[in-house]
Specification:
mainly beta; five-stranded antiparallel β-sheet; 1 helix; 45% strand; globular
Length: 71
């Protein structure tokens, strides 16, 4: 999984996705509390099982995810 401030890259073999789809991704961070993350994303690219997507929520900066972003 690759994270940025604006999106995520992940692999999906069970759910067929295509560019233009909207999906919800859910995962746990590897922090002390295993913080759950749930984000609505827009799929922008699919290459085999690799998916590139942008975050659609307009909630602003996510503090929990911010710790994983290298400036």
């Amino acid at each position: 999984t690759d994270l940025s401030l604006t999106g995520i890259g992940f692999e999906s073999e069970r759910v067929p996705l295509k560019a233009g789809d909207v999906a919800v991704v859910r995962f746990l961070l590897d922090d002390e509390g295993q913080s759950p993350v749930e984000k609505e994303v827009g799929v922008i690219s699919v290459r085999g099982s690799k998916v590139g997507a942008v975050f659609l929520d307009k909630g602003g900066y996510d503090v929990a995810l911010g710790k994983y972003i290298i400036p």
